[in-house]
Amino acid sequence: MFDIVTFGSATRDIFVRSKDLKVISSPEFLTGKAIAVEAGGKVYIEELIFATGGGGTNCAATFALQGLKVAYVGLIGNDEGGLEVFRELNALGVSCGFMKTTDQAPTPYAIILSLPSKERSILVYEGASHLLTENDIPWDKLKEARWFYISSLAGQSAKTFEPIINFAAANKIKVAVNPGQDQLTKDSEIFKKLLSKIDILLVN
């Protein structure tokens, strides 16, 4: 029996820190400002860090570090990035038996551009995690879980949100949800309908 099973993205994060990145102000941007580099120039990087990220895997790692028995359900690419995700989760004690690989898309990546002033922007490459379908979820092996934690589900994987919630309700599994844009905008009516089946709602 698992204390908690997490659902959501599994990514490789690349943290890039450079004092040569500049903040410019312009009404063209939603926030009124942007991180910029000189066109045609060369930017030197002071710090470059590779790590595993993603809503589903980050939370799986956090729960495992608290001593809980945790499994992650999701898709990674059949590539080096996916292998690194597997290695890091496995080393932290997260059960990776429900994590599948696919040749349809690479493992997702996020490039985090950071300035010394703490300003940052994130470049996101979606990828394998967003291709998860109901057929990729080992339903029979999840019935004894105590909790499900569902992070943002985007793209094709957003269609699994309702089935996961309904499965949890049918099997008396408690549910914590940190919804993403698809749940709050594209599928907002479905989300509202499922609210009564959610035990903990996290909105950041």
Describe the fold and architecture.
With 204 residues, the chain is α/β, with parallel strands linked by helices. It has a domain at 4-11 and 52-108 and 126-201: 3-Layer(aba) Sandwich (UDP-N-acetylmuramoyl-L-alanine:D-glutamate ligase), CATH 3.40.1190.20. The protein has helices at residues 55-65, 80-91, 161-170, 181-186, 188-194; strands at 4-7, 11-17, 22-25, 33-36, 47-53, 70-77, 99-102, 109-114, 120-125, 147-150, 174-177, 200-201. It has a 6-stranded parallel β-sheet, sandwiched between helices. Strand 6 (70-77), helix 2 and strand 7 form a beta-alpha-beta unit. The radius of gyration is 18 Å and the shape is globular. The two termini are 30 Å apart.
What's the gist of this structure?
By secondary structure, the chain is α/β, with parallel strands linked by helices. The protein has five helices and twelve strands. The strands form three sheets. Strands 7-6-1-10-11-12 form a six-stranded parallel sheet, sandwiched between helices. It has a four-stranded mixed sheet with strand order 5-2-8-9.
